[in-house]
Prior knowledge:
about 70% helix, mainly alpha
Amino acid sequence: xxxxxxxxxxxxxxxxxxxxxxxxxxxxxxxxxxxxxxxxxxxxxxxxxxxxxxxxxxxxxxxxxxxxxxxxxxxxxx
Length: 78
């Protein structure tokens, strides 16, 4: 039987964590390019859009890392 947390959700494994962080990291250059283009054009709405996207990306990565830390999945098994 698989391990489950109290709420019945299976904890994310190493592959899931790496996928979540990796997909977020691959989005970073796209956001950087969008930010650069928005600054060059002086488009305040596009700047706000990129800023919110970066904030959401950061929060998502931090939530994955916090969940991984609290689940104890980062500890070496003996």
